[in-house]
Amino acid sequence: MKESDVNEEFNNLKSQSELMSERIGDLRDEVDKVIEENSELKIENEHLRELIAGKDGKNKKKQQLSMSKKNLEKLYNEGFHVCTQFYGKRRDSNSSCMFCTDIIYGER
């Protein structure tokens, strides 16, 4: 093999590996989005099940909350984040936040 052929082959491999690295990064971003959406849907599903169960199921859960968690729940229901990541910021279109709901309803 000529030196120019080796250099050309090396440059081709380098280009291909850079392209593959970029594609892997894009796929990783997509997987992260899907995982986040899945977590949000699980939380929303849990809330919908509580609503379907009726007031009795929700009242029992509220009775189990401490006074501080009830205060956090009140702020959350008014449309504010109570999680450490976004504390005090208004939730977009009152969308659910898995971090907030974990703080309020999580097993701690």
What are the defining features of this structure?
single chain, 108 residues, mainly alpha, 74% helix, 0% strand, rod-shaped
Question: How does this model look, in words?
Answer:
The chain has helices at residues 3-53, 55-64, 67-77, 98-105. By secondary structure, the protein is mainly alpha-helical. It folds into two domains: 1-60; 63-107, no CATH class. Helix 3 packs antiparallel against helix 4. The chain starts with a helix and ends with a helix. The model has no long low-confidence stretch (mean pLDDT 86). InterPro entries: YabA (IPR010377).
Strand content range = under 5%
Q: Report the sheet with the most strands, covering strand number, pairing sense and barrel closure.
A: none
Q: How large, in whole angstroms, is the Cα Rg?
A: 24 Å
Number of strand segments: 0
Number of domains: 2
Q: Structural class of the helix and strand makeup?
A: mainly alpha
Number of helices: 4
What is the rounded distance between the termini? 67 Å
What is the 3D shape? Answer: rod-shaped
Mean pLDDT: 86
Elements, N to C (H/E):
HHHH
Contiguous uncertain segments of 5+ residues:
none
> Can you give the helix content as a percent range?
over 70%
